[in-house]
Design goal:
The chain is an alpha+beta fold. It folds into 4 domains: 20-198, D-amino Acid Aminotransferase, Chain A, domain 1 (2-Layer Sandwich); 202-319, Beta Barrel (OB fold (Dihydrolipoamide Acetyltransferase, E2P)), CATH 2.40.50; 342-455, DNA primase, PRIM domain (Alpha-Beta Complex), CATH 3.90.920.10; 476-644, DNA primase, PRIM domain (Alpha-Beta Complex). It is built from 12 helices and 35 strands. The longest helix has 18 residues, at 321-338. The radius of gyration is 29 Å and the shape is globular.
Length: 652
């Protein structure tokens, strides 16, 4: 079928290969977009004619008999139509799940439902070129006319994507769809007019081989997963050894036997320690997983079932960081447009309260491997300002400037040239013993100053541990865990021992990723003690942890003396020292963010670069600022030291 919307067609309704969505990383608000629930089932096209109803997969495999109960209900529609939707089975809380469909095909348990979200043809008229909002109205009116049990209109909301996503998270759904309200339907095309934003990580993968079984397992140990990259080469993305029942292992092995080959389907050598039996990459499966690594492999994949509705050539590699970053940049620029601004030019003026900021070189790429620009960093801090400013207020700032981005040179600046700086900036003089003069430190007490700093090239924000009100008394103690050529899991283990020691002292402690290679652990002190006292107390804790973990930790300052160990740095608790603020971006590939953690989040799956400018804001919307207690009253160090001394006396 072809032609404009409303034009009379002579052809009968027929299968149309459906429009596909791109992946987006974060939800957004936009009045020009609608948002729908993302279902976890089989994409299904319904072709309704006077004589029959035919159901098809997105690759035109017949679903007519497979989903016979849906076919029968659709026969009640006495009009010519082509519908687009998803066949699912939902639980008692309305949540769809691909595995439930797999079980249904074997046991018949469950009730099939067809959620319909688009109409492509109606009574001789092609509707492709109508705007989506118009097609949805047509669809709604059609479905209202007939008693259609388990045929459900997929409802939508307008503009409020963030709230809709938050509700989907609360309801433990798979994700949401974002669709441009005025978009036309593009058969067989993957378009950025439709975006899928996932909560649960699921994807399709090709089965490229199986490993030998171990222990009590029979038939095979794990399946090797693969996807085609942009050059049509097969890419290994990990192995999956869970999600199989004993009966399932047997049935799958019988199916795998049909595709076994002596030759690896990969061009290069794949490093797998197990014995492998290769398969021709013709079977598609669905897997869920916790996350994808920086290299694009899947962490903790779980097998959900085979996908008979997909062609192997369609299984594309979608987890490349560069692609994800590009899509995220599109989303952030869309957020800018929503706020009444155009996508920032290279230079433009931004009104922040009473201050008009002149922002320069916004299109300059700051993170070459990821595509993030200076404008992206400005926009991140513009959004995160509410959360980061409480940790910056009245604290002298040491500016670490990267005018050319992370691939260029950087320099530190403490002394602000007041004659060349805007009059509205606030600063504070502090005498420097090393320079034997007063230093004019910048104070960052508002959003305008924060964005001014970023425009100077400050990717990261480095405040003092104390404020100008009590410059000699820090508000917190810092234990910086810095790995020296040792696995990050040892940093996690060290952090738990630090917490163990602090718990024994009845100290409240708070952990955050450094955004670089390690972890920062803070103890709120409320500005009650001078730096020397705090540093000595930090040394006591570091020494205690080192005694408990002598083989994997060190308190030696020299890098040569702490190789292959976690350095427990307590020297950050000195006058004038700075540590990257919570929610600060760090000048490293991936634009990581120093992110506060709940202690329960600390585990072997955690990576120091896990949080970045693409996902931190959504995390904040869900969790809020979990670090507020760091700015609280704080601990009584004298009381703790007295208690330790009394305990040692009693034991002696």
């Amino acid at each position: 079928m072809s032609g404009s919307a409303g034009k009379k067609e002579t052809s009968r309704p027929q299968f149309i290969k459906p429009m596909l969505a791109e992946i987006a990383l974060e939800p957004f608000d936009d009045p020009d977009w609608i948002f729908e629930t993302k279902f976890d089932g089989y994409r299904t096209l319904a072709v309704i004619d006077e004589k029959e109803v035919l159901l098809y997969s997105r690759n035109q495999q017949s679903f007519t008999k497979k989903f016979n109960s849906i076919t029968k209900v659709l026969q009640k529609i006495k009009e010519l139509a082509v519908l687009d939707g998803e066949v699912v089975i939902v639980d008692n809380k309305g949540r769809s799940g691909f595995q439930r469909l797999q079980n249904y095909q074997k046991s018949g348990e469950g009730v099939l439902k067809y959620f319909v979200f688009d109409i492509l043809y109606l009574n001789g008229h092609n509707t492709w070129n109508l705007p989506l909002s118009g097609r949805k109205e047509l669809l709604k009116e059609l479905l209202k006319k007939y008693p259609l049990e388990n045929i459900i209109y997929s409802d939508e909301i307008r503009e409020k994507g963030k709230a809709f996503f938050k509700q989907a998270v609360h309801n433990k759904l798979e994700g949401i769809m974002a669709k441009k309200a005025d978009s036309v339907y593009r058969p067989e095309k993957r378009s950025a007019d439709w975006l899928k934003i996932k909560i649960v990580h699921e994807d399709e993968a090709l089965i490229a081989g199986i490993t030998e079984p171990r222990g009590a397992r029979h038939y095979f140990g794990a399946i090797l997963l693969a996807q085609y990259d942009a050059t049509e080469k097969l890419r290994y993305i990990g192995k999956c050894g869970t999600g199989f029942s004993e009966k399932g292992l047997k049935e799958l092995y019988a199916e795998f036997s049909k595709f076994m080959t002596d030759n690896s389907p990969f061009e290069g050598k794949i490093k797998i320690p197990d014995k492998v039996h290769w398969l021709k990459p013709e079977l598609v499966c669905q897997v869920k997983f916790s996350e994808s690594t920086k290299e694009g492999n899947l962490r903790q994949p779980v097998f959900l079932g085979l996908r008979e509705d997909l062609n192997p050539g369609e299984v594309k590699y979608t987890f490349a960081e560069g692609e994800a970053a590009k899509k995220q940049n599109k989303m952030e620029k869309r957020e800018v447009e929503k706020k009444g601004r155009q996508t920032p030019d290279n230079d433009y003026d931004l009104q922040v309260g009473k201050v008009s900021l002149h922002l320069t070189n916004q299109k300059k790429v700051y993170f070459p491997d990821d595509g993030y620009t200076k404008g992206d960093i400005v926009e991140y801090y513009n959004e995160v300002a509410t959360y980061i400013l409480p940790y910056l207020e009245n604290r002298p700032q040491s500016l670490n400037r990267f005018p050319g981005g992370i691939a260029g040179s950087n320099f530190f600046q403490k002394d602000i040239d007041l004659e060349k700086s805007p009059a509205w900036l606030k600063s504070h003089k502090i005498f420097s013993d090393s320079n034997q003069k007063d230093i004019d430190y910048l104070l960052c007490n508002d959003k305008a100053t924060l964005l001014y700093m970023v425009n100077l090239g400050c990717i990261e924000i480095n405040p003092w541990n104390s404020t100008i009100k009590q410059p000699d008394k820090p508000d917190w103690m810092v234990i910086d865990l810095d790995p020296e050529e040792i696995d990050f899991k040892e940093v996690v283990k060290t952090a738990f021992v630090v917490k163990e020691v602090m718990d024994e002292m009845n100290l409240d402690s708070f952990c955050k990723t450094s955004g670089a290679t390690g972890l920062h652990i803070y103890v709120p002190l409320g500005g009650r003690y001078e730096y020397e006292t705090v540093r000595l107390f930090g040394q006591l804790i570091a020494h205690t942890v080192n005694v408990r973990l002598p083989r994997t930790t060190s308190i030696e300052r020299s890098p040569q003396k702490r190789k292959n160990k976690v350095y427990i740095d307590f020297l950050q608790n000195s006058f004038g020292q700075t540590v990257a603020a919570p929610y600060s971006v760090r000048p490293r590939p991936g634009a990581p963010v120093s992110t506060p953690l709940e202690w329960m989040e600390l585990n072997e799956k955690l990576t120091p670069l896990q949080f970045n400018i693409s996902n931190t804001l959504t995390r904040l919307e869900t969790k809020g600022d979990i670090w507020k207690p760091v700015l609280g009253k704080g601990a009584d160090i004298h009381k703790i030291i007295k208690s330790i001394s009394e305990k040692k006396t009693d034991e002696g």
